[in-house]
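Let's practice the habit of predicting before peeking. Look at the sequence and jot down your guess about where helices and strands might fall. Then scroll down.
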Amino acid sequence: NRLGRHAHARAVYVHAPPPKRRGRGSRGGQESESWPVYGEEPKRVLARLQEACPDGDGVVDLPPARVAKVLGDPHEDRDRAPEVLLGILWEWTKTTARPYGEAPVEPYFSGIRGADYSVSLIWRVHVPEAGQRLWPRASDREAVDVSIREVREALQDDEDIHRLAPDGVTVESTPVADLQPGDQIVLAADRGRLDRFGWNPDASGLVMDASLPEQGLSLDGTAIRRLCGVEVTPQLEIALGEDEADELDQSDRDKAVAEILDALQAAESPPGWGDGEWDAFTHALRPVVERPRREVARLRVEASEPQRPGSDFGSENDELSLTPEAVELDKHGQAVGAMARIIAERIGLPSTLVEVVERAGALHDIGKADDRFQRWLDPERQRDALMAKSTTAHHRWEATRAASGWPRGGRHEDLSARLVREWLARNPSWSDSEHRDLLVHLVISHHGNGRPLVTPVDDGTAAQVSAVVDGVHVEAPADLALADWDQPRRFRKLNERYGPWGLALLEAIVRLADWRVSAGAGVTRGAAR
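Done guessing? Here is the structure:
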């Protein structure tokens, strides 16, 4: 209650257990007592608070004068931290493309002496080639954090290491010496280096691929041999249409898939799989091959859902446009604008900024009005209205993109920002130059791009994209090979005005409003429900 707005100064302390993770943080299935960033401090704080209320009522009298007495002095030995120079901060701020050689953040959290320079490792039966996308997507619960020094020593004989690019999905190859703190490394499951207690550089046994049970099976001969020792290469060639005769019909492919499933169900349970888990997994696999672009073909388990990106950044295929129900473009924009306004008002933004984030939310997807994007969302042209979301099956998403003519990797928010700039050009009296720049930036950055640039892609279309904004018809070039070279200037200027944290906060309002509405949250009478 530091602003004196309430008649009381009550606070609730919620103690959450540390996250479960494989490896050093969880030995033999035991609970970890260390939290990310905070170490064991939360455990000590809870114990102190419990000691301070001997009556067991859970209420602690904690005025400022008693904080030191109740919680005690800090336990950690304060270390020196490096200075946050403006040049370093600026490199961190450019999140669209991670600058090579950027300064590690660990010393700023843990001090120069206490910084833990670590990398994250996951083990998979299928390790994609460089440039391919990882499936299933990486998750924290399968990862093990290990000191980068230990990893370099353990893998020093490897020519190249497979790690995830900044988008968290695409695999890239790098020499061991070029590993950086925070890298996510993908190791083959038969590479070892993990036992039941966690990281062990001397372990050589097969490591369970913890991503498979909830998602499905990679249709790759090497991956299946690693997993259960079964050889199904001839059946895979037929199921995936790789037979040299190329005279296969669908019944031949279906028969090959059935033979693969029979072989898997007859195989012994791989190491790490519990009693009945392997049998349940193999019988739950759907006999339908999915083949997304730049990803391994696979069979999904029944009741599994396509994994969405952990964030909207890096979703090069606009997978966030896939929803259980189709949504009209105008209605989606209105709902996101209203939700953005609610969030902005509740965190206390001034009215001028509230208006900007509301309008950014309302206009963020107008670039989807592009004819090609509409053909992608609605291939059969079943609806008269422009659409914002599609019910297209996930495994058909790439094929419908190619058929629509939308360029691979193209960003609809780039077109949205062009239309917003055209509308601003026709409305010179709308707000001041700072808020006009902010409006464009919040639209172009609502999927994490434009910090500082949206990368152009191969296109070359001569078509225009058009929309109606506040009753004004606006048009802009639809060629996604064109770059907005004003965006880096705009981005830097806004960082200088609002600060890196302040600008990120404004971006987060629009992005979170979009997420909530896309997830089904409704807005009525100015309130979220």
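How did you do? The first helix runs from residue 41 to 51.
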